[in-house]
Amino acid sequence: MMAESLPFPDYFSAAAAEYSRRRPDYPDRLFEYLADLVPDRHRAWDCATGNGQAAVGLAQHFEEVIATDASERQISFARPHPRVRYGVAAAEDSRLEAASVDLVTVAQAVHWFDRPRFWREAQRVLVPGGVVAVWCYDLLRTDPEVAAVIGHLYRDVVGPYWPPERAVTEQRYRTIDFPFDEVTPPPFQMEKDWSLPELVGYLETWSAVRQYRDAQGADPIALVSSDLERVWGPPGRKRRILWDLALRVGRSK
């Protein structure tokens, strides 16, 4: 399934290696929950897999995971796993057989898709009673004084550089069309205990940070670094970082 990268709005390939190292992992409890919903655990399709975070999590519960992304560079940095088969493919044209997968997942990416076409593709490849799950996460949560500085960076410094599709994640996917028999999931969140350098490494993966640097020729994180260091304390100190997942789950019709 390997091919050249496909044309699409690409804000992430340039930072593919950083994404692989610095982004938080999804909780295994999420994948356990999804695996319990499906009719069988033969095959899952993780669409827009990026660095393979979700694909590797799914591989603990499925015999095979097909993990595709429109970016060949993202696939080149994806995490290897013996039950994950990576390939380059558009979300709206997976090249998978009809009725061949038990679960379709999209982590932090469905807002980039031509959704009507993708929903039709998901319906086509799912087995009867198969499940589709899409999720996103918004701004992190942590100690209030640290969160205030990060919120200032997010809204006031790099705010104009977020792509317009970002608004859909801020609405926690509540406003997107979702033409499936919907299931109400329990709450899930990601958790990390990070030092200040680890947090800054994550902030550097924000697409708006990279867009600001390209446009202004300056580092936006430097504009808040003194405030961040002041409220954090010793840089090696670990603080709990949380991201709430916004999840939409449904069954094929």
- Report the CATH C-level class: Alpha Beta
Query: Helix-strand pattern, N to C?
Result: HHEHEHEEHEHHEEHHHE
Helix share, percent: 25-40%
State the fourth-level CATH superfamily: Vaccinia Virus protein VP39
The helix/strand class is: alpha/beta
Q: What do the pLDDT scores average to?
A: 92
Terminal Cα separation, in Å?
28 Å
- The assembly state of the depicted protein chains is single chain
Number of domains: 1
Describe the biggest sheet? 8 strands, mixed
- Count of strand segments: 8
The residue ranges in which pLDDT falls below 50 over 5 or more consecutive positions are 1-5
Task: Give an overview of the whole structure.
This protein is of the alpha/beta class and about 250 residues long. It has one domain: 3-Layer(aba) Sandwich (Rossmann fold), CATH 3.40.50. Helices cover about 35% and strands about 25% of the residues. Strands 1, 2, 3, 4, 5, 6, 7 and 8 form an eight-stranded mixed sheet that branches. Helix 4 (about 70-75) links the parallel strand 2 (about 65-70) and strand 3 (about 85-90). Helix 6 runs antiparallel to helix 10 (about 225-230). The two termini are about 30 Å apart.
